[in-house]
Amino acid sequence: DRIAAAQNQVKSAKSTFGPKVYAEARYGLEDTTFFPKDKNWMTGLYLQIPLFDGHLRSKQVAQSEAQLRAQQAQVQHLLLKVQEEVWTAHTQLAEARETLAATEAVLQHARESMRLAAERYREGFATTNDLLDTEADLVRAEGAHTQARWNYLSAGSTFARARGTIVGQSTSLTYIKKEP
Fold first, then answer.
1. What's the number of CA atoms in the CB half-sphere (13 Å) around residue 109?
2. How many angstroms separate the CA atoms of 138 and 145, rounded?
């Protein structure tokens, strides 16, 4: 996680302000002969206190904190971007649902007009051109309805992806039955 790494970097930079304590211990054998017999040992304790470093440590802390803020801002930006994507997909789904409902009404009207035109034609009150014009209107309404249904399914899939859910083929068909 980048934020955790940046937080650790800030802690590390702040830790340079305190004194450092080092401990050391050694043990060995020392002599001029092949099998040494003299024992040698040493222990030590060192204390290092930083006095002046030209503000290097405070600059490192400030730089680490700036990197942390940048990482947090990037995460916030990504969250807002995902939220925007979800809201946009939701809006497109709602628009597609309304368009689908509107095209269903137009399709029903075109079917009824076709039925009436066919009756008028059988009774001799309409011409073949009237019947063909009404049939062309019905075909256009069916095409618009098919396109609206496709757009609705596509918007549903986009919305599910934006939310982070997986939508299979059977789920998509169920999806359209529940919504409109």
1. 10
2. 10
Report the candidate in 141, 179, 139, 142 with the shortest Cα–Cα distance to residue 159. 179
Residues 165-180: tens digit of each pLDDT:
865 544 444 444 444 4
Our measurement of the distance from residue 166's CA atom to the centroid of its chain's CA atoms, rounded to an integer in Å, reads: 14
For residue 167, the model assigns a pLDDT of 55
| Beta carbons within 10 angstroms of residue 64's beta carbon | 19
Are 149 and 176 in contact, with CB atoms under 8 Å apart? yes
**Percent of residues, the chain, with pLDDT higher than 90:** 51
Give the pLDDT confidence score for residue 176 in this predicted structure: 45
SS3 (DSSP) at 166: coil
